[in-house]
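To: structure subgroup
Subject: Chain for Friday's discussion

All,

I'm putting the inputs and outputs inline so they're searchable in the archive.
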Amino acid sequence: MISDEEEHIGFVKILQNKTQSKKAEDAIKRYVKELEELNTHKDDVLAILSHDLRSPLAATIAAAEYLDTYYDSIDDKERKEIIALIHASSKDELNMLDYLLEWARIKYASQVFSPKKVFLLPLVTKILTRMHEQVTSKSHQIKNEIDEDVFVFADPKMLISIFQNLLSNAIDHTPENGLISLRAKKQVDFVTIEIQDTGKGMNPEMLSTIFTPRMESLCKPRMIKKGGGIGLLLVNGFIEKNNGKIWVESEESKGTSFFFNLPTEKSFNNT
């Protein structure tokens, strides 16, 4: 005859076994998901290599071959133009390689991740100072409406890269004499940042694929401005790493607004 105590112990063991089985099942599911993501990542990298990195490399090779073939028959002005093209294409290639490596490192490799309380105004002011030449070259006006007391809890280096990429994207895709506005709105446990431009805007098809690292979503940004695809992938990865999210609102001929939110210290510690 089984005593009540023995029956209770047996029941507890059954529950423990079920719990362990559930944990094992969850672990297997996580492992399978990680494998699927790694496989997707491999496809993403191949897509980027074949499109975003091939174009500037092809331009560099073609320019160098032309210079080598016709060097004696062209004047100094044309030589300088070709050398400038080679230099610009090489910089594009290096920048995109940096973006790709950084994105892959953040997404799939171990790294030092140091989130802390960061006030946005001094950080953004410093970034805008660094980008002054890029802004003035297109005669843009920058309207910084971020208040002094607004802060987020995030990795400072990633935060700098987020702002630099989004601001550079806004500057490049806005015709001369445009307006780029920065705003930050405090919520209960996070802050929503907006970077708005008066550029050409995007159609619904571009909006639906802008953060998707696939060939079709990378080709159109490449035709408009080199490096557009990889920079946004990097931004998206950094924001996700800091427990935030990013989204876009845009209409053709009416400009674009990139929104992203990041937690305050309280909400980050609770995640």
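Points worth raising on Friday:
The longest strand covers residues 179-186.
Residues 214-228 have pLDDT under 50 and may be disordered.

D.
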